[in-house]
Amino acid sequence: MSFGSQLKICREERGYTRPALAELLGVSASAISNYENGLSFPKEDVMLRLFDCLGTDPNTLFQDSFLTGRGVLTNSERRLIQRYRGLSPLGKESVRSLVDALCAYQDEAESGKPDREPRVIPLYRSPAAAGYASPVFGEDFDSIPVTDDVPQAAEFAVRIQGDSMSPYIADNSIVYVNRDPLSAGDVGIFCVDGDMFCKQYYKDPAGVVYLFSLNRARSDADVILFPGSSRTLVCFGRVIMHTLPLPGRG
What we know:
The protein is about 30% helix and about 20% strand. The protein has about 250 residues and is of the alpha+beta class. The chain has 2 domains: about 5-110, Orthogonal Bundle (434 Repressor (Amino-terminal Domain)); about 120-240, Umud Fragment, subunit A (Ribbon), CATH 2.10.109. The longest helix has 24 residues, at about 90-110. Residues about 65-70 and about 125-130 have low confidence and may be disordered.
């Protein structure tokens, strides 16, 4: 017979209604109903008061199949309950007070734990010319949380303006960037001679670097850097997105 069935029998034999027993135990009548129907199980402190109120012992309530959400009572738990029943009324009250205090402390500690703060990354927000990214260093930025809709690998974010990377990167959209090395076809954030660009990267066998616009109607915004030129190129990071075919190669 289950714990809930035994509890109901003991309660009725001793003439307690569910509300009456609930008041003695300091729980709600619905909690007693849940215990009896096997929907939940009393906490340890409530269980101790239950034994006392019903004048019974673990063997009566737990008989053949003491199964709970926690499993079968361990031997040490049974010994604790048996020793509790041998205490004087004052001793039992002291145990109940101590258990209540410990449970309240644990509940307070659990409820007081702050949710883990999400990691934050900078979102660089300066306006930029069409097709350019806002500068990555030395400017104002907002901190944004790395939530479920932000790639976990992102190290910073950049707001893009213009249509040279559409439709893959729309005007005024945000791209998320990390500092992984670039491969051919990756989109990156670049600084060329002091100007910032968001472009698709390719370097040919001769060492010529091509920074392509994804919007081929804006091929006029491509940047080409030849080996030995005096132009400077710095890559700040790789935009986190799927790799796209290179112009004329896909």
